[in-house]
Amino acid sequence: MRFNKSELNSLATNPATKFDKEGLLIITDRQEGFLWRSEVRVQRWCKLRGNLLFYLKDKDSKSQVAGVFVLENCRPRFQNDQIDPEGYVFDLDFKQSPSERFITHSAAERLAWVRSIEQASNEKLNQVIRQLKDQIAATSRQRPLSMGNHIDLGMPVPMAVPVSQATTTTTMIQEDPKPVEAPGSVEDLDLSELPICETSFSCDNLSVDSLGRAPNPRVVCLVLQSDDGEPGLWREHARTEMLERTQSPQFLCTMRFQRSAGFSTATRLRFTVHDVKERMSLTSVPLGHAEVALGVIQDATRLRLPLSSPRGESGFITLASWTPEVALESGSGMAPPPRSSTQLFEPNETAGGRRRAHRRTQSLPPKLAVRLFVPQQSGLQRICARPLLHSYRLHSSLGADISVQETLLESRLCCVIPQQLLSIWIQREKELLQEVSGMGELSGDWRGRQMNLLEEHLRLLKDYSQAKQNIQQLARDGIHFKQSSVKTDESLEFLPVNLHVQRMWAQNDTLQRRGVLDVITVGAFTRHDVKGRKCGGLIKLLQESKSWKLEQSNACKVQAANDAVQATKQLRKEIVELMSQLLQLASQRSAQDMMPLCNQMVSKTRTLLNIWEPSIVEEAVAFIEKHRIIEEPDNVLMEPMSPFRKITQQLTALDLKSPELEDFATPVVAPPDLWPRGHPSLMRSNSWHPSNNSPSSSLDINAIDSLQHAVKCYNEHLRCLEEAEATHQSLPPAWQQSSAPLTVSCSADPPLHLIDLDEIKKRQATPAGFLDTKLMNSSPSANYYRPTEEPEPLDLTQLNIEASVMCLVSKLKFFCGRCDSPAIRLRHPKTPLKREGFAVSPQQTPDVIAAPGKVPMVQPAASQQDQQQLPPADGGVIFRTGDRGGKRGNKFTDGLDLSLTTDWTAELRPSMRKLRHAMDRILKTARLMHSVQRLQQDVRCNRIQASITYRRDVCFSQALTALVSALMLRLWGSEVDMAYFMMLRDLGPLAYFEGLLSLYGSETDMWSDMCIAIEDLSAVTFQLVRAQGEAKVTPTPRITGSRQAMEVQLPVPEHSLPGNGSTISFKITPVFFNIGINEKATIAETLGQTREQHRSNWDNYLRLSQYVGRYRKLGLGSVDTGESLQSLLGFMEQQLRANVSKNIKILHLAEDTCRLMDGLRFTSCKSAKDRTGMAVTLEQCRVLVREFQLPAKHVPNALSTMRSEGTRMDNVLKNIGKRKYAFNLPQVISLPAMYRPPVGAYGKAET
Length: 1247
Description:
By secondary structure, the chain is of the alpha+beta class. Among the domains are: 5-129, Pleckstrin-homology domain (PH domain)/Phosphotyrosine-binding domain (PTB) (PH-domain like, Roll), CATH 2.30.29.30; 554-626 and 794-816 and 907-942, Four Helix Bundle (Hemerythrin (Met), subunit A), CATH 1.20.120. The strands form 6 sheets. Strands 4-3-2-1-7-6-5 form a 7-stranded antiparallel β-sheet, with helices on both faces. A 7-stranded mixed β-sheet has the order 19-20-21-22-29-23-28, sandwiched between helices. The chain contains 32 helices and 29 strands.
């Protein structure tokens, strides 16, 4: 250890020092030279003080100090009680050092030295303290709590918040299994509660040490708690920051006393002033204390008390208190708050019950305001949980006071958003499984590729399902954030790391200005690898995948097919929504509003008909006809099932319905027997009665795992086969054993009860039940071909859509009074190609036009006129236009009488039903084409694409969770005016992500992942909806859509949303600026590895400039704001061109630009704990300087206080169980000066 020589010498030679033991000891003195070594016995005077054993140069008690032994990790030992030739010997055995031998002149003296040394170590002292605590607890029948005067072992406490992070540390923090506790819990803290009073502290005339040096003071508040009149314990409530070398400190931290924490006017308080001797270990000694009742503090605005100590008076402590007053929000229509004032000590009060006050000037001694302004938090705690609160009082340049309140909260959406995303991705994997199995069993090498696709999708399905189950368990435990210490846990990788809301509320009473700064702090959006393996991140993976796809002939076709499927689903959803609106208008007989919707439907239908190229469809159908194995109907009961058919049969048995998306599942597909073993009954693939007895909707992870193992074994079996003709061979033994339980569960499932759509229509009275728009619009598992079903010709499907739209539009025009309008034509009908080769004909539905040669079945719900006039939309029947002779008109509406038609919806339903089923058919064909293109792609490409998709989903889940949390915080955590809604509608908000990652080592992958994840956020559509019912109490966003077209519905307070009935939809504009600031950033800049970072920052600057241009063009903000934005962009461009090392000015300029446009703020580093804490506190102080006139000379003190005693230190404690930032001294030196933590706030810690 390294000691301070002067301090040790002063302690050993000071006559006032009381030593535990003194006397003569013979010590072995080791003397070493260049070529010799010897040991000499020297008699020295020794002094024992605490765990320090001083030995002097000779046997004179007043001689100089020669050295010291630190009595830690040591044990005294002597062999026997007999005297040795050298004397009475005892040895001091150290754990990692050589033993030291001591000799005394008597056995009694040796025994006294051994006993004193045994009691000298800190370990022994801690043991004695624990015993005393246990005795006190047993006497008072209370749990062992921290003693107020034992500051060395205690931890600082958030003000107005109990010491214990009870609900958080118990579950998440493993390093601190027994946290210190106090009455109440973090969950009990109500941000809207008014405290009894708030108190600030200052001291004067504090005593100095023996060398005349001023102390390092801090104030600790203790609360006396007693039950039933018994003697109570002093328990720590809060503490201030530490100031260096001053006898008259003015502390910035204040303390709040709330009734919910058990405080009352009779509560006894003790304020102890400590002198911190060493900042790293927080070793301190008390200087003095003062006791007072809370009621006295509340009544007296300014109270000066003497500090008492065993050495007498050691100074004074001044308590400045004020009573609360709710801060008025801007635009509330009430008067602004009064100016800051200080109460005069006058015996009488003036009229009105308020004492006279005067403004404090800079020349007067600093005083605090009489009134305390408490911010209104609106619905902040509806979307956030477990608030931690700290408050400060700063002095402005004009002599006024700046009230600052720091709040740290957890987002309640941390587990909600990933669960909904996982539900969407689970449904997507089920869709792809159905697509692959819908191709039927293929022959040759294609069967192996088909099984590889099944295995890959089952693996992803299992991973997504397991992740969702883990998050659900975490949510049930009431945990709302993921610790940085478990960021490499793969079971929780979809959750953002250390997601918190950092809010600073500030008010300058003189300027009558108040404001809120909200920053979302979150770890890097990445997939952490447990073994630390590097892959280059998503940018490198996507670039490699793109270059690899260019070498493949059909790589572009696969992407185009996937885009066409998603476009078909989106158009189908929009057309169904339009039909639902038309039905609602028809029920109201509102003719004038129907034609605009009709024109939109025609336009979207035209787009739907032109998505697919007929040549691509015919190519895929030809592939299916060539390679599908056809099963003869006569042999279906005789031959055993092939392994592929057994596997695909069990896909139906797997119960994979997600409870969250149960309401969104389209009821137009039933899970039929994929390989029927009997005569196939007439089953309509697009009618599934919602009341059928389906299995439970829980995710069976074991069933997925067993089926995945079965597919893997079958793949290995196929690779071992030398002959490719083994189509109907039995399964290998390993596969049979693994798949046997699934076969039993499949046979045990109850049969499905399918009924006709007309029966559903008769049972449901409302129009919504007919189309079931809510169930149709998302369509996570809509329509698929069965393995034995023949794909319907594309021309036939398009003809069905065209005929349905023609009929529907004609009737709508008839209802609107345009009965002479001719029928529209979407395209010219084509004769479909007739294909052969399928032994099993496709199942026909009564309400879908039959294939050529079949007799079409007519809906019984349609009117007689419709039965005569509706043309069959198939290729086998030609439209007859000469039946009416020379009469011109519309054959779809001839014979209808508008005066006799009372139910418009009954006339529209048959055509809408046909259109809906025809769109389902085209979606089935699109999915079949997509699966064929994916099958023809190389196997390695599918595997690489699956791994990239999974990593991208992990990063996107973390990014979207943080973004939705910020949007909900903005909508619910503060007052939203009409100007902000206009900005959302016309432009969309700006989301500024600030990164502090270094492009060296593993953080390079993190930066790459964050770039892609933030870019993906720009494709998400957000829609504001009114909060109704339970959403008013617990507002929860709802996510729908797919990866390519995702929509998030954000509930908004009903009083905030504009009442004109218009829907506000918007997209965000994300920008991401990253500047590394630690020692790895220095290495990266030295090696020239920051070129990609500079290029990315420049691209985001261009995007930010475009956003600012649109912002100014729309006239948002004032003229001064526009000029300030232009100036900031000019400065930012200069800094980007300068390309300076660790140019943090870029981040500061981006922060100011985002704040001027009321954007969303995010700050990230690896774990959002250490570097993020430095950045957030610096931004808060910059805001106080720019907006609230905090003097620049006070910034270092404010920064040090916020970092050592503020909410960022609480965040460190929640994550690792220690109040230490994870920096060492070289890392601190490498940080920019304004990003360095204060001494004593950093050290060795697990990050």
